[in-house]
Every structure is written in structure tokens, then in C-alpha cells.
Amino acid sequence: MDISVIIPLYNEVESLPELHQWISRVMDANGFSYEIILIDDGSNDGSWNWIEKTAAADQHLKGVRFRRNYGKSAALHTGFEEAQGDVVITMDADLQDSPEEIPKLYAMIKEQGFDLVSGWKKKRYDPISKTLPSKIYNATASYVTGIKLHDFNCGLKGYKLEVVKSIEVYGEMHRYIPYMAKQAGFSNIGECVVQHQARKYGVTKFGLSRFIFGYLDLMSISFISRFGKRPMHLFGTLGSLMFLLGFLAVAWIGIYKLINLWHGILIGRITQDPYFYLALTSMILGTQLFLAGFLGELISRSATERNHYLIDKKANLEN
Fold it and tell me: CA-based angle 189:192:197, to the nearest 5?
């Protein structure tokens, strides 16, 4: 099979018939063998009724329904598990992603050898309240991850099948699938300009809170990818530095007290010096950070995936 198209959706019954016809038309025009996988994320507007009815008449269409709303990451993860095509295309169900871009994404992966291609909605039909925060967010994400993309959150992406089978999308981490792919060893990541359609039906399911949560998720995935299997490297280093600074500060306060006593200069008690308590606090925090790293190491060493590595190829290992 050439292509699997994965579409997460939540209350998009109005757009589904047009989207289905559009995708089918593009696939047939280019001679692709394909499947369309619709992941109903707990819709209550009749979306699933349409999916069941249409899937019975179209062998290319498959559907999965969640009992409640779990979010886009859960829907994508389920779609990735079901996908069988050599190239996997993800897109949104609101008709803002154009199926006409599918052949271009397919060619970039099959002919140009990209592992993942992310769409870039260079010209967007969104208010400035969405476009300006999006630019700031994408610039930050690009800097932190080291992946030069203009639109991390674009729903229109293409992947090799090996990529989606090698990553686990959870929480709200769908925004950082390119970074997850890079951490899994798929570093040939490309970008192409895609059309952005104005929303035709319904309203957006995402508010400004996604930018706040997006930054938190960025920090989480960055930390996990760097220190998930070696937490002591972070917490142990910070803890040791804080303890050392606190210890040196306490030592200096004590030495300063002794020097003044040696010269017959009377000064207040060490415990009356506010810097003594700051130094003591630093030592306590340093100890706690070190212990947090130590406990993290114990948990990491006990994890079942501590020696799980992604192997690309094997050659003649029996000899």
C-alpha cells in the first residue's frame, strides 16, 4: 500500500463528506493505493454515524472511535498503530489542510529520501491573535530542538512508515513529533510550503491555552530526551554545585568570624548573619537535588526499557 492518511477529528461531521471526496479524488487521480483512517476522538455530533455508514460502502475508509475525548496525541498514536502504507500522511479534518498537497509530500519522502516532511502554512487565514503567538512559539521550539521548521504544529505532515512505528505520541506531544523522530534517529527532516484554507465549518477546538501548554510540553520533552535515562547528570550536577556554594559560603562566614576574633574585633554571632541562612538553605537544596537525581537513577535502572535501543540494520552477526 502506498499511503495511509490519518485524520483525527472531534465534532467535524459537516466537513467529513467533502474531505472524504476530496482525498479520494486526489488518490485516484494519482493512481495511489491508499487507506483513510479516521480517528473519532469522542465526537457527539454524529461524526461516528457518518464514518460507519461510509466505511461500509468504501473499502478504503477505516474508523476508530474513542469512548471519550482523549486529545489529538492519543488519536495520532492510535492512527500510527493502524497505519500500513509506505508513507503516512496526517492532516486535520476541518478542511484547512488541502489533500492536493499529498502527492508532493509523498514524492519528497519516496523520491527525495526524507524521513519526515512537515507542512508550512506560510500564508495563513487566521487572526493575528493566533499568528503572532504562533510565530514566537515556533521560533522558540526551533531554537530548543535544533530543528529548523517554521510550523511545528502544522497538522499536515508526511512520514515514512518506520518513523511512526518508532515513536510514541502521548499527552500533548503531537506538536513535537519532528523532535521525537529526531531523537529516534530519523534526522532527515524536511519542510514544504502548503496551502492553508479558511475554516469552512464549525469553530476551532484550540484556544490560546495551547501556547502555554505547548511551552510546558517543550520543556518536558526536552528534559526527557536529554536526561530521561541519566537524571543524575542534571540533578546531581545542580545539587553538587548548590551544596558546594553553600558550604564555601558557610566556611567563609566562619573564617571571617575567626579572623575578627584573632584581631580582637567583636562582631555578632554567626547565626545573626542572614548570609548564614542563605548558605545553609543552599546546602539543603543541594542535598535534596542530589537525592532527587539518585532516586531518579534507581527508578531509571529499574525501568523495563532501560536497554531499549532502536536498531537500524544488522549484517552477518552469526559469523
Answer: 130
Q: Which amino acid is located at 28 in the chain?
A: D
Per 3-state DSSP, what percentage of the chain is helix, strand, and coil (rounded to 5)?
50, 10, 35
Tens digit of each residue's pLDDT (9 = 90 or more) over 53-67: 999 999 999 999 999
User: DSSP assignment of 30-69, as one string?
Assistant: HT--EEEEEEE-S--SSHHHHHHHHHHH-TTEEEEE-SS-
Q: With 80 as the cut, is the pLDDT of residue 80 above it?
A: yes
C-alpha to C-alpha distance for 117 and 163, rounded to whole angstroms: 11
Helices vs. strands in the chain: H and E counts, helices first: 10, 7
Amino acid at 247: F
63 bridge partner residues: 38
Q: What is the pTM of this model?
A: 0.76
- 172 phi and psi, to 5 degrees? -125, 30
Q: Which amino acid is at 54?
A: T
Please provide the distance, in angstroms rounded to a whole number, between the alpha carbons at the two ends of the chain.
35
Angle between helices 102-110 and 16-30 (to 10 degrees): 50
In contact, 165 and 80? CB cutoff 8 Å: yes
Q: How far apart are CA 268 and CA 253, in angstroms?
A: 11
Nearest CA to 120 among 96, 79, 156, 162? 156
CA separation for the pair 289, 283 (Å, rounded): 10
